[in-house]
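Re: Re: ligand-bound prediction request (bumping)

Still looking for help on this. To restate: I need the protein modeled with acetyl coenzyme *A bound, output as structure tokens. Inputs repeated here so nobody has to scroll up.
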Amino acid sequence: MSDVAKLTMPDGKELTLPAYTGTEQEKCLDISALRKETGYVTFDPGFGNTCPAKSSITFLNGEAGILRYRGYSIEDLCEKSDFNAVMYLVIYGELPTEEELATFLENLQKYSEVKPQLLKLYDALPQDTHPMIMVSSMLAGLSAHYPQFTNPQNEEEVEEAIFVALGQILPIVASAYCKNNDKEFKYPSDKNLSYGAGLLKMMFGDDYEVDADVDKILDELLILHADHEFNCSTSTARLVGSSQANIFASLSAAVQALWGPLHGGANQKVIEMLEEIAGEGGVEAIDKFLGMAKDKSNPFRLMGFGHRVYKNYDPRAKIIKKTCDKVIEKLGVEDPLLAVAQKLEAAALQDEYFTARKLYPNVDFYSGIVYRALNIPTEMYTPLFALGRLCGWIAHWREQNLDAGARIGRPRQLYVGPTERSL
Ligand code: ACO
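Reply:
Sorry for the wait, this slipped through. Here it is.
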């Protein structure tokens, strides 16, 4: 504690609130004693000003467009590291030595095959089940198949559970694709593939040749999705975990939260929106869609635009936009949606409605164009987001689990219903 703030209550009572400063000079008022001292709670819809815990994993500055994991910028990590090392960094706090990385990967390898009985869960679901439902169900099912790793108070069990989740997320995501496409799911013959190459081979078959540049691009996308501090799905993982629910249960819930179109589900919705614009005349129809997004009586929103925290260009979107150009050129793809996306972005960034509200493209705006170029169907975009984010959810769940001061998450309400009445 370095500072204090004084609060004068409506009845004149004065309260001193401790003020904290984070390592990046972020300011925070400690209101944890407020209700006890004054009877008041704080009203903060959408938790825009609520900080439920201290965290050392990710720093982001939405005004400056900065994102760092454990102090390293995403730009540096994309250029000089890879997703395996980033997973380790995000979860354990430091980049791994060669030996640490080898042990980490061996541990994931130990659990890299989903139990055949668990895969039968797909038989209970319709073929066109959205893959996010399947991914969430399979993660929840891990609790049943690994009950020996479900005690949050046992650090060794938690570590093994982490290896199970990270080891199996790849076949879980890829087998969901196979279920949708009525294909037999098979593990690749090479056991030492990157997450990206492994995914493509599990989805498209062992003979599928993974281009080295494509492998690098997928790896970069996974790095960019690895963590984003207390976003909706991560807060879900933390909240579920705060009740001492096991890690698999918490991760399954996080997947469901990510699926929402205002969160990670936006990457699928962006492509659906661009297809709709293309179907209505392409760039000629952009003004109509911008008008719909600005019309307060219309629920339509420009998908892939705006962010709770970024009031500047999302630094992840900046990198993905460049990647998108690279991938389109490399694969010689001609995608009419790219031109629509570029024109839509340019038009929105010149429009007073979007500039006044500081609405910029977010991480989901261009990622779908990259996945499309790789022939990945739209329903798989959000599962790919989950593939990257799993390590972030785990890091947060683990950080909270190791925090001796953590309490069950339990917000207060402002009750506005009927007062007592008789039957
Ligand atoms: N299109 C049109 N208007 C928008 C958009 C948008 N995409 N985003 C925000 N606005 C407007 C709001 O209507 C509001 O206008 P007002 O001040 O006149 O009432 C203003 O901008 C502020 O927006 P809020 O809704 O208060 O912002 P909030 O932080 O609550 O929501 C969110 C952020 C959910 C991301 C929002 O911008 C949105 O719906 N975007 C589209 C969906 C999307 O791309 N989601 C992915 C986000 S990234 C991620 O989660 C991985």
